[in-house]
Write a structure and sequence with these properties.
single chain; 400 residues; alpha+beta; 11 helices; 26% strand; globular
């Protein structure tokens, strides 16, 4: 990882390109158009909002640095071939270091987990989260790296889940409404509204885009059964990659069609079961057997794809990957929908009530909130030292 204490020691133009030498010995080159396009001066960017005041085609066809030197406070100053002058602060240069170590450090940090995480759950106290920015940020940080979190002491008034959603982000209205009730009903339009067990899945893969975050708030939990199942889809995807790279490649490149329809709605989308970014890191898992429709692929692909699909499904059912617990009244489960897959065991509605309410929000709103809080708050070196994160796992009844 890039040592963030490294500072720029010198700057020079070598073969028409500005090169920086850092105090720890790293050397990084700054592309000409990349650097000029990031000029922060008031001629290039609005001083109030930072947005660019020019079009990219306005930059000179022939552009090169004429002078480059470090001035006061190690600020990089550049004089360009068209006479324009730019200045880049030390902090900006550190934040935009393009060496591989620094680029790797900027990628989203993900902590894969298995069932043993039951002993160190990401639990937050809802009253503290809404009143203490440090508690809120601590909970958001663990949610970000783990892909899920639990909030306790959420009032059990119907509709509260939407209030929680609007606090964490903005509730996304779908054909299910602003919020939806998860309980057994006659003539259900979705298997979620029955008492049957559900395998782990991501919600609504038939949408463009799928909901980023799902919330499930427990109002009643008297019926025997109905335990919640969670699996880290990223961990399962990495197991597939390790065990069968060909299967992993198929599920990251050949999309499945997902479909949902009722009397008022007809939705479909094509998505790969596993999504990866430009460096091959897993960024999403879309797995929903109930909504999987048909594979629009050549016949010579379908057999191998289905073998990979079944293999991935079996990995998701491995007991060591499952986190199993009973969601109690006043607890709200928050899940990154394209990572933390969720399901439940069957329950008996004749022996007690089980009533959850849920809603969806977009993930970017939660990320924005976390970033804004980070501007003004410095967390302890170990996040778990904050009471919001060190609360014992007694907040949930975790099954062995």
């Amino acid at each position: 990882m890039q040592n963030l204490n490294s500072e720029v020691r010198s700057a020079a133009i070598i073969n028409g390109v500005i090169q920086l030498t850092w105090t720890l010995g790293q050397v990084s080159a700054l592309g000409t158009y990349w650097l000029r396009d990031n000029c922060p001066c008031s001629l290039c960017r609005h001083p109030g909002n930072g947005q660019k005041l020019y079009e990219i085609v306005d930059l000179p066809r022939e552009l090169s640095p004429r002078e480059a030197f470090l001035a006061e406070n190690q600020t990089l100053k550049v004089v360009w071939s068209d006479g324009h002058r730019s200045a880049y602060t030390q902090d900006w240069l550190i934040a935009h270091n393009l060496c591989e170590q620094a680029r790797a450090a900027r990628r989203p940090q993900v902590q894969l987990w298995r069932g043993e995480i039951a002993g160190n759950l990401p639990v937050g106290d809802w009253p503290a989260v809404v009143t203490d920015p440090v508690a809120e940020l601590a909970w958001l940080e663990r949610f970000s790296v783990l892909g899920f979190g639990l909030l306790k002491n959420v009032p059990t008034e119907p509709g509260t889940v939407a209030d929680v959603g609007d606090r964490l982000g903005f509730v996304r209205v779908t054909n299910y409404g602003r919020l939806f009730d998860v309980k057994s009903v006659p003539n259900p339009t979705n298997l979620a509204y029955t008492a049957v067990g559900l395998g782990v899945h991501s919600d609504n893969p038939y949408r463009h885009p799928s909901p980023g975050v799902q919330l499930l708030h427990c109002l009643e939990s008297e019926a025997p059964g109905g335990d919640t199942l969670l699996v880290d889809g990223f961990a399962a995807a990495e197991i597939l990659r390790q065990e069968d790279t060909v299967a992993f490649e198929l599920l990251t490149t050949v999309p499945m069609t997902f479909h949902y329809a009722d009397a008022q709605t007809d939705l479909f989308a094509q998505q790969t079961l596993i999504s990866v970014d430009h460096v091959g890191a897993v960024t999403g898992v879309h797995f929903n057997n109930r909504s999987a429709d048909w594979l629009d692929a050549p016949a010579e692909v379908t057999e191998d794809w289905y073998a990979a699909y079944i293999q991935f499904g079996r990995i998701l059912k491995r007991p060591e990957l499952e986190l199993v617990f009973r969601l109690e009244p006043g607890q709200c489960l928050v899940m990154q929908n394209d990572r933390t897959l969720h399901g439940r065991t069957a329950f008996d509605p004749n022996l007690g009530r089980r009533h959850l309410q849920g809603c969806y929000i977009d993930r970017d709103a939660m990320e924005s909130r976390r970033t804004v809080l980070r501007r003004s708050i410095t967390l302890p070196n170990h996040l778990s030292s904050h009471p919001a994160l060190s609360e014992p796992a007694r907040a949930m009844s975790v099954a062995a």
